[in-house]
Automatic annotation (TrEMBL), chain A:
Organism: Lentibacillus populi
Topology in the lipid bilayer: Lipid-anchor
InterPro entries per UniProt: Peptide/Ni-bd, SBP_5, SBP_5_CS, SBP_5_dom
Protein's name according to its UniProt entry: ABC transporter substrate-binding protein
Pfam family, one: SBP_bac_5
TrEMBL record, chain B:
Keyword field contains Nucleotide-binding: no
Leader sequence residues: none
Bilayer-spanning residue ranges: 42-62, 103-129, 141-161, 218-247, 267-290
Gene it is expressed from: oppC
Name listed for the protein in its UniProt record: Peptide ABC transporter substrate-binding protein
Entry similarity comment: Belongs to the binding-protein-dependent transport system permease family. OppBC subfamily.
Any GO BP annotation: transmembrane transport
TrEMBL record, chain C:
Keywords: Cell membrane, Membrane, Transmembrane, Transmembrane helix, Transport
Protein name listed in UniProt: Peptide ABC transporter permease
GO cellular component: plasma membrane
Keyword Flavoprotein in annotation: no
Biological process annotations from GO: transmembrane transport
Record lineage: Bacteria, Bacillati, Bacillota, Bacilli, Bacillales
Signal peptide stretch: none
Compartments, record wording: Cell membrane
Amino acid sequence: MRKRNLLSLFTLLLFFVLVVSACSSNSSSSNSNGTDKSDGSTETEKTDGEKTLIFGRGADSIQLDPSKITDGESIYVTNQIYDTLVRYKEENTEVRPALATEWNVSDDGLTWTFQLRDDVKFHDGNDFSAEDVVYNFERWATSAEFIYYGYMFGASEDDLGGIIEKVEATGDYEVTITLSEPNAPFLQTLAMPPFGIASPEAVEKYGEDYFKNPVGTGPFVFDEWVPDDSITVTKNDDYFGEVANVEKVIFRTIPDNGARFMELQSGSIDMMTGLNPQDIQTAEDDENLQIIRRPSMNVSYLAMNTEKEGPMSEKLVRQAINLAIDKEKLITLYEGIGKPAKNPLPPSLWGYNDDIEDYGYDVEEAKKLLAEAGYADGFDTNLYIFSNPRDYMPQPKVTAQAIQEMLKEVNINVEIVENDWDTHLAATENGEHDMAFLGWTGDNGDPDNFLYVLLDKDNAKMGSAGNIAFYKSDELHDLLKQAQTEMDQEKRTELYLQAQELIHEDAPWFPIAHTTPPIAASKKVVDYVPHATGSEPFNLLNIK
Amino acid sequence: MSLQPNPIPDPDATRVDESIQPKSSRLWVDSLIRIIKSKTSFIGLCIILILILTAIFAPMIATHNPIEQNIIDRYQAPSSDHLLGTDELGRDIFSRIVHGSRISIQIGVIAVGIALIVGVLLGGIAGYFGRWVDQIIMRIIDIMMAFPSILLAIALVAVLGPSLRNAMIAVGIVGVPQFARIVRSAVLSVKETEYVEAARAIGAKHGRVLMQHVLPNCLAPIIVQTTLSIGTAILDAAGLSFLGLGAQPPTPEWGAMLSDGRAALQNAPWVVAFPGIAIFFVVLGFNLFGDGLRDALDPRLKQ
Amino acid sequence: MLKYIVQRLLMLIPVLIGVSILTFSLIHLIPGDPARSMLGEKATEAQLESLRAELGLNDPYIIQYGRFIGDILQGDLGESVQSKENIGYELLHKLPATIELTIFAMILAIVIGIFAGVIAAVKQYSWFDNISMTGALFGVSLPIFWLGLMMIWLLSVKLNILPPSGRLTAGIKLDTITNFYLLDSILTGNWSAFKDAFSHLLMPGLALGTIPMAIIARMTRSSMLEVMRQDFIRTASAKGLKKHLVVFQHALKNAFLPVLTVIGLQFGLLLGGAVLTETIFSWPGVGRYVYLAVLGRDYPVVQSTILMIATIFVLVNLLTDILYKYVDPRIRFD
């Protein structure tokens, strides 16, 4: 008996190898992501003749169901396929009508009523109505898998609904949402891509595989997904908004930044993100290329683990580190895409405190503070960094080495610990680090989305911390909590200004930079306006 | 096996039996003379000597401090001030390469040392005791050899955590099977010779017989394999560093330097080019010398 | 013969079991959290915990291992934690990419290597001999990642004659049948795709093929020299057979034996070398796939893929052995 098991193990293994390497013909469909097209036979022709935008990027999407993902590469694509109730304006994070044409909120801030468009069709041909919105909200509240829902509305495993008490269709084209407590950023939040409305029929039909077969109402219709290679979407001619100018958008994954740029230079792609900073100048000098800068709504920082016993728990030490790093010089490593940061909030956001004066570069003063804290002879510490460049930090390793060298001046010996992105997140959330790099791109244009998430004590829990400085200030917590439930923006602004002063004084971070992530594109691409949240629908851009 | 194979894999590496005979000191001298007479192995020897001298006198040869940064002067092309240009942090590439020679030697010695000690022990024990001991050890070796070595090395470093030390350990472990197999078959052939049997007959302990009589007579293949492995180990460790799994900043390790320069390939190719050339020459040196050794020490290949 | 093959195949079983245990243990020793990789930076602890439970990450290792083997036995390679994609399906795309690259590299290596080796042997000490053997010496000492980058710099950046990455230019469409692009483009008669796929193969193929090429060249030369000194070749020459006939019909045939072993050995090694080559050329193959999976702690992918690669690796080695014994009449099967 045992022998037979072993034998069958072997035969099976052998079988797999044969199947895989002998490539039987049932592997024929290149789009086996489960679309109902059963073979890929329509694609022999080359795509010239019609306007196709080929967009190069560093990583593939994870899922095309926006409610379940947080990665920018998925959102890039789902932004084309789905609409939200409200959308951000093209140039800022104010909301404008989308699936909802108008809305109002009760005086107590608890009841929101939305009037919906009556002329919208899903890509699968179904009509869009209030029931579909209700369906989506209810779906998001069925499991903790819907990450953003939980995260924005305070839902958890025990309370899947969070602050959203109920969502009702109060008419064919009217939806009423009732909250359990006022939530100032609510409308902003609804404009976030994760709250794109999916076709209920498609969700039911595909079940587990829905994320490979997305159906929304957006300006582009999903066509094909070849994992790690490309995702193709085609123009939605029946779009209720501005119908796209290009017939087709192909999102192509080219992992290496340099290689991707070479593809752009040779013309095999039209546009790309994730440019090596060194290549920006080359692109600007190239008569066929242009650099488009995405408006800044991010921050990169070095967080100091205030909870770890030892030097980092001392405010004086943290201030000394702020003084000992030459930020101006450091920023040159951003090759022109970054501005020095002095606050956690980006200056483009309301509530930014411009009165705060940054620590400045002063080695002598830093040494004095260190001596005062009892570290005149310096100390050994570590700096956790991630290996892949990110929009807010194009060269983490190089930046870390520069900091390492600068801190040596005040006798702080830094060991750099480099991990890939996921491992870095896990390690820093567990508080393994003394110091760590991280950054944040705003989701919804509300200061709460930076300050509460990144610095409130609520988010300093071991193992899942957004606040990786483990900075726990009750004073700050009170301010931020108050600002969350306050509906008056002027009062909120005042609270956030105060919050930033507290943070500056306690110095849990060394804020590094706010960047304008560059997008390189062929000059043929026109009318492209990148959005501060990191991605945008491509219906307005055109190819000459 | 390792990330990159030995230059001339000997198809009969595991069947050295007929060639292994006890060597007299006269034969050793002959072999040495033969190595020096051979043009290519002499060149190899010279490269190795240059490497060692560079490592010893690195601070004197280097024109700059290898880890001193000058951010404003980053990506300078080679010039009289910076012989091989500067890198992404304005560090002098020439000085970094010169200091990197120390790390290369360290990698070669430690990684191959691990492979040598563990491999010789395992192979020796397996060959000498035979039977189930041999079976167990060789099955483990078989399992290790079923992995393409770089995958095994990557997995090992992933477990141990990326650092130069761990990369050396991983490269060392990956090199174990080759030594073990060579030594095992060498021991097998020596074991039955008269003097070993004589030693055993007069009641010498196993350990003693193994160390004093068996292993010394397997030296030729071990020496050849060691020399060739050093080159390979340097290449492998550089490969791991290139993947970000080896030396960490600011260590001037050649593979890491090359990897860090990748982002500037279009604008500053020298950052990538020179560390690669350094790796190439050192590996070439060990390969040439190792080839020479093989020709000299392994009579079967003598022409 | 058949008995020998069956015997060797049976011997592979414990090795593969050992490989699976080793792989499984290694990957579980790696610090990190696959649930975190899957849910990303904004997930809460409760979300992570429920996912861990769903994936069975809280079970004892022995149960997890049993499940892994059980699934494999049922033909289920599992699902990637990161992409949620079925691993068998992913390998269907990635394995052909790697095998295509490896075979291409090997063909380059064999054709050029044997050609250079034979000529070098026939014209011993000529300029061709000197140059090609110096080249071969250099070839085995080159770091392939460096070679790859330098080729990109020269051929893509400076001269712009070859594409720097990937298997196919975006916009060129190809019906995939086997996922071997060269084969597919021939089968569908799509010549523009063939040309494009071929130009994408050239640089990574050359980078990957350099070392085996050098080794094969040296091996061919030395075994040719040995064979040509032997009596039967001298006899053949003495009998007045034409020189190239002697060389190719008699000498090469006999010199091929040791070369064959090298080819088999190298072929397996290329599977490993593909990790670096695929990284540099963004080649969507299995080497990069498993490397990224190790970094991302994608347990199922690492387990299944390494097992798969190891299986191929040992099978190729076995095939070489069998071929070797088949070609060499002196070796008996017992």
